[in-house]
Amino acid sequence: xxxxxxxxxxxxxxxxxxxxxxxxxxxxxxxxxxxxxxxxxxxxxxxxxxxxxxxxxxxxxxxxxxxxxxxxxxxxxxxxxxxxxxxxxxxxxxxxxxxxxxxxxxxxxxxxxxxxxxxxxxxxxxxxxxxxxxxxxxxxxxxxxxxxxxxxxxxxxxxxxxxxxxxxxxxxxxxxxxxxxxxxxxxxxxxxxxxxxxxxxxxxxxxxxxxxxxxxxxxxxxxxxxxxxxxxxxxxxxxxxxxxxxxxxxxxxxxxxxxxxxxxxxxxxxxxxxxxxxxxxxxxxxxxxxxxxxxxxxxxxxxxxxxxxxxxxxxxxxxxxxxxxxxxxxxxxxxxxxxxxxxxxxxxxxxxxxxxxxxxxxxxxxxxxxxxxxxxxxxxxxxxxxxxxxxxxxxxxxxxxxxxxxxxxxxxxxxxxxxxxxxxxxxxxxxxxxxxxxxxxxxxxxxxxxxxxxxxxxxxxxxxxxxxxxxxxxxxxxxxxxxxxxxxxxxxxxxxxxxxxxxxxxxxxxxxxxxxxxxxxxxxxxxxxxxxxxxxxxxxxxxxxxxxxxxxxxxxxxxxxxxx
Amino acid sequence: xxxxxxxxxxxxxxxxxxxxxxxxxxxxxxxxxxxxxxxxxxxxxxxxxxxxxxxxxxxxxxxxxxxxxxxxxxxxxxxxxxxxxxxxxxxxxxxxxxxxxxxxxxxxxxxxxxxxxxxxxxxxxxxxxxxxxxxxxxxxxxxxxxxxxxxxxxxxxxxxxxxxxxxxxxxxxxx
Lengths: 564, 175
Ligand SMILES: Cc1ncc(C[n+]2csc(CCOP(=O)(O)OP(=O)(O)O)c2C)c(N)n1
Ligand SMILES: [Mg+2]
Prior knowledge:
The complex is a heterodimer. Chain A is of the alpha/beta class. Chain A contains 21 helices and 20 strands. A 6-stranded parallel beta sheet of chain A has the order 3-2-4-5-7-6, sandwiched between helices. In chain A, helix 8 (190-202) packs across helix 13 and helix 15 crosses helix 16. Chain B has 4 helices and 9 strands; from the N terminus they run βαββαββαββαββ. In chain B, the strands form 2 sheets. In chain B, strands 5, 6, 7, 8 and 9 form a 5-stranded antiparallel beta sheet that branches. Chain B has a 4-stranded antiparallel beta sheet with strand order 2-3-1-4, with helices on one face. In chain B, a hairpin with a 5-residue loop joins strand 2 and strand 3. Chain B has helices at residues 26-36, 65-77, 107-119, 140-148; strands at residues 12-21, 43-48, 54-63, 81-86, 92-103, 123-127, 131-138, 155-160, 164-167. At the A-B interface, loops of A face helix 1 and helix 2 of B. The complex binds thiamine diphosphate and magnesium ion. Residues 393, 444-446, 472, 474-476 of chain A line the site of magnesium ion.
């Protein structure tokens, strides 16, 4: 059957199992939009800004594990999408972004709405393609999905010139694809696995440090088994939260710059670190020279380039983390591994002493709403079972600390790029994927204004997201750094001329509630979450001076953190 | 891309040979990787192989063992890269071609030049009333030495191909 390039695209996406296409139309993609209108197998979600389309697709991908798919026009459509592409790239999120392009004969002519989308996105994609002939379209799309979703996942851009979407060719859905230049390793090397288990058998103070890789590979069950077997404390990176149940007694909280005292002290004192699907990011390690100075390190990761990039490791294991943990468990069983009970007792005693510091305790103040309290209340009211998307700033760190995630794919935040404006559109993607679920977007009055226009998309698509805006009137995280490191010179971190968020929400057709007193937080949240089919904007005026603790100052080791 | 020449303090010099899909943009992926991550490039050459779907690229770089390990891993991660080898890990042959145009004013200088070209086993490939163009192939050091040998003769122009390399013996980079 002969189809146009535009029709091939819609057929292909449906055949590939794509539910939603997040997008925004324009000249270069008009043929595609026409084809979308003439089919009903994929649903197009119109946003109000292309950045939001990418974040929404990203939120969909993070919450479901399936690739998010985006369609934008050439030129400004493509450039607006770049922030979202880079956000997905930094966090290894599977995503396919279709960008329209000017007709092939005009490429390179500075044509209207022409940008070199392949060139601009090259440093922030896993791979990208320019399709010059409609004959290559279906196979290129297949490659794009294959590359985006396998190995270490990531965004892939497919740039399609307008004439290619009008040309016709026979379409057959390519079921299989192999690429001679791309073969991600899945199984871990057995020799390394044996070496790793030997180290585990002799460790006295083992520690598991796990990241987003566990979630991306759906390896949380395997991780739980390994942790139990080793009776080892588990810490998560911000990307890894939910990969191990926060309510488990083996969990010591998040590590890193705003990690818990017990996690950072355990890292600094362990004699064996088992890093799984984590990449020793600078926000995690603090001063790298002082990171886990007493430990032998085993590092499991699907990406060989992540291993020994920042920290030299003793046992590198390249492979899918789920597969490798299974092999480790098998090898542990085969080796009649017996944990050292006396050492474990001592290690746990030490950890309990660190826990007793209660680093997340905060001072309450009669008439100011403490952001930590608001998040604890959010946790209680949603019974710890909400999908929580976040923006970037203090509120993000507090959400990571105080909302205790027991399940993977529930905590959705821009960890690597730290993109303000991520939270609301990401919540849209989550709510579309799970229409009945409770979805909360924890944000700040700074971040929410970076994609506030999406309140309109939420109305159009009936997305009953609960926006929990911790409004401190400051670009709080910036203000905190200025307080600590710039003698309280608050250069441009004050959020002047804020809108009335309640009225703004109402203007878009939603419900807005402002909360000003600690005593009202619970009731307001209850009311908001009871409104199952409405978007509610909770504008919670929080203590403007509150800081995120503990904090490891730049250049310090993890055990040199500032406590409250 | 830091355009420096090799120095000993900054780690070993490595010649990395890469087989990659002969696709538009493949070169810029490699060049972009080096500039984005701040890796050094001494030279970079690329041309199609006997199989026109594949290009072979040779990158000469230098750095500590850790950096070189990262470079090879990051290159391998590029979706267009099929295979690569660090030639400097084993016995190998390295060649670069130089073309140099010099001014020749007198018969004396022409004779002297011809001798010099013979010593270095170069070839004169173009002659005019006032100039000679010479072709020379060898390692980078040999080309440097040749260029430095022109004391009195004015150099009008030089062009170097950048380094290509191949491993010694039967070992080969092939798919
Ligand atoms: C797009 C973007 N621009 C700038 C920053 C730098 N930045 C990090 S946190 C922050 C302040 C965020 O303020 P707000 O959303 O009110 O959150 P708060 O820290 O007050 O909780 C800024 C400006 C960023 N992360 N992203
Ligand atoms: Mg704020």
